[in-house]
Amino acid sequence: MNRVYIKTYGCQMNERDSDAVAAMLRNRGYRIVSDEAECDIMLLNTCSVRDAAEQKAIGKAGHVGKRRRKQPDLVIGILGCMAQNRGAELLDSLPDVDLIVGTQKFHQVPDYLDNIRAARDAGVPLGESIVDIDEEEDSQNTIRDHLETETAQISAFVSIQQGCNMDCHFCIVPKTRGDERSRPMEDIVAECRNLAAKGVREITLLGQIVTSYGRRDYVHTNGVSPFVQLIEKVHEIDGIERIRFTSPHPRGFKQDLVEAYGRLPKLCEYVHLPMQSGSNRILKAMNRPYSRERYREIVDALRTVRPDMYFSTDIIVGFPGESDEDFEQTRQLFEACNYDMAYIFKYSIRSGTVAADLGDQISEEVKEHRNQVLLEILRKNSGARNESLVGTVQEVLVEGPDKKGLHFTGRTRGNRVAIFDADPRLVGHFVPMHVDRATVSSLYGSLVLSGVEN
Ligand code: SAH
Ligand code: F3S
Fold it and tell me: Which of 133, 170, 194, 266 has the fewest Cβ atoms within 10 angstroms?
């Protein structure tokens, strides 16, 4: 009765949290299963950023609730952002849920499950569901070294910070993830060292606004921000060959970070730089503290330091009041920045945010149209970038077999997915790959094996 299935919705932070919960549960003797039909405990780690994400998880929980008729002992838990955002109110529509645990209480999940199971084993009726969405002092430190590497892990996410205080007017994250808190630098570096010793070669530093890392806890030294100091420290670790981070904020791209791309070779030439809108009027209404001109300046500065820089972004189309003219500004800036990847979202009302109370909501039809316009530009630009790589040799980090087990996959430094044939012994190695052909999303190639040690 200890088989747990965890389903994760949303961002990489949620993936990271689910991995940590899984590791804690394994340490307690639970088994993590990959087939949901075989579980005794179903945990949904949820996302609240858009309504669609919440509806998906609610639909799933309702569906799983029905399974209880056939499997009365099934335990159902809702974790993470939607648990935090909606709390006990979820029980009104989902009475079968046993456990609701917010974003600062993941580390309590094993205890709660132990209690629920002990009560069941003793034949005690459960009674009330458990709801814990309180704040936790120092919760940025409760989730960390719990990751264990069952299968050799090559690329790892390391949480450096939790929460966000930016108050972008569309965004629910400050409510679901709480105040911005940074982990101590030495803890993060120790975790990275530990991961490197276990074979990890690539680290992605994770947080809601990583460029603000440590701003309350550390000082700038010689004009270098605490975030860049952290990157420098991770850069010194033997074995770690690639460093990435997500998500930064444009306001964090000062000279020190731009220059870091010129002097720190392990820092991959791939930047996720959320634009949200290319209209100064809308950026202001969103409470995003930069202009389209400043945004463009950052992109140009980064391309000057690294001409081969890859860019991705987040865009919201259909923010309240977004006129055709505003969207045209976004379209132009989007085209000019020549993104390799972009996450384009249709604005979704999040109750409790400032934008939820604005009038002038945009129709679904218009949002959909604007979405398609940007997707088409993305397809064109991303396709052209991949096409330009055909015939070149790119360094790939070999991650493992693809889903079908026919080929191997890896990523280039520019975060392009690469597909090739390889020997299992090459997993975890950096190998040059000749790009034979390309699609919009992937590069297909052959490894150049001369000179590579096995
Ligand atoms: N700093 C965070 C942002 C979290 S939200 C990060 O780690 O990425 C991720 C993206 O979702 C935002 O950049 C924004 O583009 C989009 N988003 C946030 N709130 C939204 C809303 N109400 N409607 C549509 N998209 C939204
Ligand atoms: Fe959300 Fe803005 Fe923070 S998008 S996570 S409030 S930087």
Answer: 194
